Amino acid sequence: MKRSLTLLVLAAGISTGAHAQKFDGLAATPQMGWNSWNTFACNINEQLIRDTADAMVKLGLKDAGYQYVNIDDCWHGKRDERGVIQPDAERFPSGMKALADYVHSKGLKLGIYSDAGATTCGGRPGSRGHEYQDAITYAAWGVDYVKYDWCDSKGLNSVGAYTTMRDAIRSAGRPMLFSMCEWGDSKPWEWAAGVGHSWRTTGDIYPCWDCEFSHGSWSSLGVLRILDKQAGLRKYAGPGHWNDMDMLEVGMGMTEDEDRAHFAIWAMMASPLILGNDLRSMPEPTRRILSNKDVIAVSQDKLGVQAWRFMASGSLEYWAKPMADGEWALMVLNRGEHAVALNYDWKAHQISDDLSKREADFKKTTFNWIDVWSGKLGDTSKKLDAKIAPHSVLLLRLKARG
Ligand code: GLA
Questions:
Q1: What is the pLDDT of residue 2?
Q2: In the annotation, is 257 catalytic?
Q3: Whether 149 is catalytic
């Protein structure tokens, strides 16, 4: 009797997905794609999603590595009488399955958005109490990515709520990348490596260099403010579980130098690269920034180690990222308002990383470098002479001489 009871309990556990694991093999490198929120907020529809998928292919962004086309908040209609969530019939008249089929036909993947609470941040139906039903619905539509927000979460336990959705996704059976968006409130880096493929580390981003924009009870943060909140988090990130610094604001009103710096910082920090601009009307300089193959290689390096700041002096910060095959990336960030002339002696600065146990000793080894923005080449046997404009970065990729 006791044995059959145990079996029953075990069977129930399996069928509800208890002890489930997240899907492995997703986000082996930080996910790359686009999301509707930063530009369009609630003003979205199926045509926009189709056009964005088209643009992603046409502009070479798919070839550059961008893969996910993510619908953020406000796609929802109501739940039907059985509780099944329906898309907004006016904005998404063809339904989500048709949209997923279209996005897939372009060789891309579709992402969707929900919330752990009963309502989303935009006041639409959230997944609370419908987690398994929603995961099954998304899987049936052919969704590949679920961003899961944290509005209306009063009384919810974040570990429980996110683990429930992870289990729901697992038992729905379709590999869907699980992008956790609880803003770093409960330190997800400490507990979520087995739950999500990425977790937001902060509140929302704002397209400015170093400002905070108040919404009353909360504020969104500029690029440097978000960067500064990453202190101490690098050890928690790695293949399949990334610190998410929020979606990109490249092409959203900052200067070109700031856009380049923002993109480089996100790549160095191995944050997901989720575009937030309108791809249908993207100016060429923005397109060039977002498809820079060296910056993307830094982001997508398979070692999956986040950069760290190894030195700071005046307005400059020096960041290093160890990469696979003995490569390194080095970023010099000028946070300040004035250009700074650099005369950097490589040999005086050995770089040594406690986390990855990698080191670069420029006295012993000479590295060739390429400046990813200008294409300029050089090597570490000579001092590095450069002028770093305000609000900009110098980003170099280093390869040991063979
Ligand atoms: C929160 C999230 C944003 C976005 C909006 C949608 O603010 O952090 O990324 O998804 O909700 O309402």
A1: 46
A2: no
A3: yes
